[in-house]
Amino acid sequence: MKVKWKMSNKSTFARLCGCSFIHPGRSLHEGLQLVHEFGFSRVDIAVGGSNAHFSPVEVAQNPRRFADEVRRETEHFALTPNECFVLNFDEPINTPDLKQRKETRDLFVGLCEFAQMANFKSVLLIPGPIYPELGERASLDLAVNAFSDLVKIAISRNLQLNIEADYESCAHTPEAAKELCQRVPGLGLTLDYSHFICQDIAPERIEILHPYTRHIHIRQAEP
């Protein structure tokens, strides 16, 4: 199915994807079965987050084993993997701890190996929080530093790296999210309006993010 809408004064075709992790506690097989029953041909799959089918750390440490499972299950339901929904590796991407950022970088290499073998198009991470002791500016700077390395790893595996600018992150405003994308060439957005709407941010203000948007989460949202 294709939907045509206007974004940044350019006509764009969007492919609709189902989401395997809407319901908690489901296996990958059960999640994909539901997506298939709804009639989707493409799917986003959770490797991280509270509804994830796997642990992102375990996937990064054994990419081939998990990629084989994803390929087997998606082929069974005639589904094409779209975005690998990760968030983080239990520690924030923008952690001030240099040792932890290096561990995240090493894990991301394995994660991208998995995503490439499983035929994903993109990987989703979140920017990390605002640290009270550092403030919003320094916390965003840490995210820029971290993603500058990670986006190169993703590109080397023919993957897009997208962030979700969630309302608890250092990119919780459209302006901060735009700045992060501008400062990290190659970084894109998986845009979820609800993270801004819940902060009473008007849709018109969010539109500055359209040029950086590669993927969109669509769900109900109101202030």
Structure, explained:
The chain has 223 residues and is an alpha/beta fold. 40% of the residues lie in helices and 21% in strands. It has 8 helices and 9 strands. It has a single domain (2-217), classed as Alpha-Beta Barrel (TIM Barrel), CATH 3.20.20.150. Strands 3-4-5-6-7-8-9 form a 7-stranded parallel sheet. A two-stranded antiparallel sheet has the order 1-2. Residues 1-11 have low confidence and may be disordered.
Explain the layout of strands and helices.
Blueprint: E1 2-7, E2 10-15, E3 18-19, H1 28-37, E4 42-46, H2 56-61, H3 63-76, E5 80-87, H4 98-117, E6 122-125, H5 135-156, E7 160-163, H6 174-183, E8 187-192, H7 194-197, H8 203-206, E9 213-217
Parallel strand pairs: 3-4, 4-5, 5-6, 6-7, 7-8, 8-9
Antiparallel strand pairs: 1-2
Helix pairs in contact: 3-4, 4-5
